[in-house]
Design brief:
heterodimer, A: 115 residues, mainly beta, globular, B: 115 residues, seven-stranded mixed sheet, four-stranded antiparallel sheet
Chain lengths: 115, 115
């Protein structure tokens, strides 16, 4: 089955700096890569996703890049703010149209933005 | 919509007792997922349903765990008998059918402590 590895496990950045989280996946058939943000005491929430036919996607201060050849993808947060402090999860899935969107999650990265 | 609803939010029980966790998915969602989150193992998919039918239960740890979805608006995850190693946060998530949206919407979770 799919295996997703995520690094680093913890990341501390100064407010205003950038944060980068990297993930690798094992199944070359995977074609959908979402990123979820989990705040304390809450369930994960989707913040951005990318499909395998796209190399990069951006939404305001967050961006995701995908390298299918190397089987890795990354999350970039620019101009970090204290409210970006949370646990971030990457995930991967192979989603043929006839099946469900079963996700395999990475281990998570705890991001702390210091004011 | 109120989002995915889970109950109870917290459950403390003694080893050997039966535990039932409940989930109400977002109306109109065809897929329902049960996850377990621990520090050691991260976010693990236990089972998921499509149109109330279990599709993949390969993540269910052992026979002590069972899940049902009697109708489109309700699902339960039961542990019988419970053990201390079952202590974790259990999340329920729901999503639309493939082809429309991949996003999984997570509930707030149930924190289970087995003494």
């Amino acid at each position: 089955g799919e295996n997703v590895e995520q690094h680093p496990s913890t990341l501390s950045v100064q407010e205003g700096d950038s944060a980068v989280i990297k993930c690798t996946y094992s199944d070359s058939a995977s074609n959908y890569f979402p990123w979820y943000k989990q705040e304390l005491g809450k369930g994960p929430q989707l913040i951005i996703d990318i499909r395998s036919n796209v190399g990069e996607k951006k939404d305001q201060r967050i961006a995701v890049t995908l390298n299918k050849t190397a089987k890795h993808f990354s999350l970039h947060i620019t101009e970090t703010q204290p409210e970006d402090s949370a646990v971030y999860f990457c995930a991967a899935s192979f989603r043929p149209e006839a099946a469900g969107n079963k996700l395999t999650f990475g281990g998570g990265t705890r991001v702390l933005v210091k004011p | 919509d109120a989002g995915v609803i889970q109950s109870p939010r917290h459950e403390v029980t003694e080893m050997g007792q039966e535990v039932t966790l409940r989930c109400k998915p977002i109306s109109g969602h065809d897929y329902l997922f049960w996850y377990r989150q621990t520090m050691m193992r991260g976010l693990e998919l236990l089972i998921y349903f499509n149109n109330n039918v279990p599709i993949d239960d390969s993540g269910m740890p052992e026979d002590r765990f069972s899940a049902k979805m009697p109708n489109a608006s309700f699902s339960t995850l039961k542990i019988q008998p419970s053990e201390p190693r079952d202590s974790a946060v259990y999340f329920c998530a729901s999503s639309f059918r493939p082809g429309s949206d991949n996003e999984q919407f997570f509930g707030p979770g149930t924190r289970l402590t087995v003494l």
